[in-house]
Write a structure and sequence with these properties.
Blueprint: H1 12-31, H2 33-45, H3 53-66, H4 69-94
Length: 96
Amino acid sequence: MVSKAPKGAAGAGEIVKQLGIAGIALVCGLGLMPPLIYFAGTAALGAYEGAGIGTLYRSVFKGMADGSVAAWSVVLGPYALFLLFQLLRRWWYAGT
């Protein structure tokens, strides 16, 4: 007899897939977002004294340690954007 999972329940493969996506998004949040923010800021506002990519990384990591919402938003932003896209896609297909 084959047991059916309740509708909406995630199987082991789906959980592994989501954990992989979350890991990639976390790496992007930690590795790519600070340089992108730095280069966008210097392109839009120009360089300023005492600023550098290392300073921005220190600021983000210190903010994470202090519980700063802004620092955590930078790091978790890519995964939050993915979840928003996934939610909108499911909403779109539920209406059809």
